[in-house]
Amino acid sequence: MEAKLKQLQDEALQQIEAAEGLKELNDIRVAYLGKKGPITEVLRGMGKLSAEERPKMGALANDVRAAITERLEEKNEKLEKEAVNKKLASETIDVTLPGRPVKKGSKHPLTKIVEEIEDLFIGMGYSIAEGPEVETDFYNFEALNLPKGHPARDMQDSFYITEETLLRTHTSPVQARTMEKHEGKGPVKVICPGKVYRRDNDDATHSHQFMQIEGLVIGENIRMSDLKGTLQVFAKKMFGEDREIRLRPSFFPFTEPSVEMDITCKICGGKGCSVCKGTGWIEILGGGMVHPNVLEMSGFDSKKYTGFAFGMGPERIAMLKYGIDDIRHFYTDDVRFLKQFQTQE
Ligand code: DAH
Question: Among 147, 162, 200, 314, which residue has the fewest nearby CB atoms (within 10 Å)?
């Protein structure tokens, strides 16, 4: 029995020595030290031994078991270390490799124009007001001196949601909402940027959804000359100091008198070309002095307060500023178009 145990120990140690992997090592552990292994077997046969031999063999068997266990642990540690080193070697990162460029997005050209216009007016003391895109017939039309059945409603084909609600056709309802909040106490000095909707067929100059920026100033002694001066500053800052403006009489139900503003054509410098249709002027926006009815409807005393308002289309302004020939470019998300406006921000 003694020889048998020694032989088992030698065999086991040899196999442990030769083992190349952790799985193999575990198999050896099970084979020698497991419940069905040869050492357990030998120990089971101890009953047949004499009383003096029994403790001797017992101690020997324990020594053999301990020797094998110790060697198994050493080898296990060694193999685990090797496995980690191998993994580290195979997963080494070459930090000298050039990185993959990260493609950065940028602000949409329309967002940029709107922000530029906002900044310009904020610089003149305006604050920004907003209103809902789903608007009531009252704010979109009635409060702006456009009662039901008024022929000027036809100027703005509308998306109605119910009899009394619609997608706002312009940002002018924000005028009425702002005045109402002021409860008849001036002054008011706001611009209102936002999306508007009209039942138009989309083409190079029309889009069923577009943007507007509304301006509204109310106070005592606000005059037409204030409107003209403000628009002049805006036009020169936006398009260049060399540009001139002119105001032409026009009609809007919410202003009296009403004007349209033209700016000298950038292409021909005012001489006349195909872009300005030979006139030397390009139309930019509409505006005028706030109609007394509009002031009164929103709670302002029209004998005490006067005001001016204007509305412009940032798409049109961006098209003129950057020479863009189709409004649909703003809404079709073609990266070839958008990329041209990419700047470091
Ligand atoms: N709301 C007008 C439109 O959509 C634009 C406009 C004209 C706004 C004159 C104004 C204004 O505030 O005074 O056609």
Answer: 162
Here the tokens at position 235 are 């036009």
Shared domain check, 196 and 136: yes
Max CA pair span of the chain: 129
CA distance 118 to 112: 10
Q: For residue 149, what are its two tokens?
A: 């059945």
Looking at ligand 1, which residue's alpha carbon is closest to its atom 13?
287
Same domain, 79 and 207: no
Task: Tell me the pLDDT band of 342, cut-offs 50, 70 and 90.
Answer: confident
Q: Ligand 1 atom closest to Cα of 155?
A: 14
Residue 315 tokens, joined: 């798409």
Secondary structure letter of residue 160 according to DSSP: B
104 is a domain residue: no
244: CB partners within 8 A, 6+ apart = 263, 264, 270
Ligand 1 center from residue 311 Cα (angstroms)? 4
Domain co-membership, 74 together with 123: no
What are the pLDDT digits (tens) for 27-62?
888 888 888 888 778 777 777 888 888 888 888 888
Q: Which pTM value belongs to this model? A: 0.72
Q: Looking at the domain assignment, is residue 24 inside a domain? A: yes
Considering the domain architecture, whether residues 59 and 135 belong to the same structural domain is answered as: no
| φ, ψ for residue 167, nearest 5 deg | -75, 125
- Cα(162) to centroid of ligand 1, in Å? 24
Contact (CB, 8 A) for 280 and 270: yes
Closest CA to 284 of 270, 307, 264, 299: 264
Any known ligand binding at 116? no
pLDDT at 344: 60
Q: Rounded to whole angstroms, how far apart are CA atoms 232 and 241?
A: 10
Q: Which amino acid is at 112?
A: K
Q: Which helix (H) or strand (E) holds 263?
A: strand 255-264
Strand-strand pairing, 306-312 and 245-252: unpaired
Range of the domain at 8: 2-90
Residue to substitute in 135, 172, 285, 312 for testing ligand 1 pocket (most ligand atoms within 8 angstroms of CB): 172
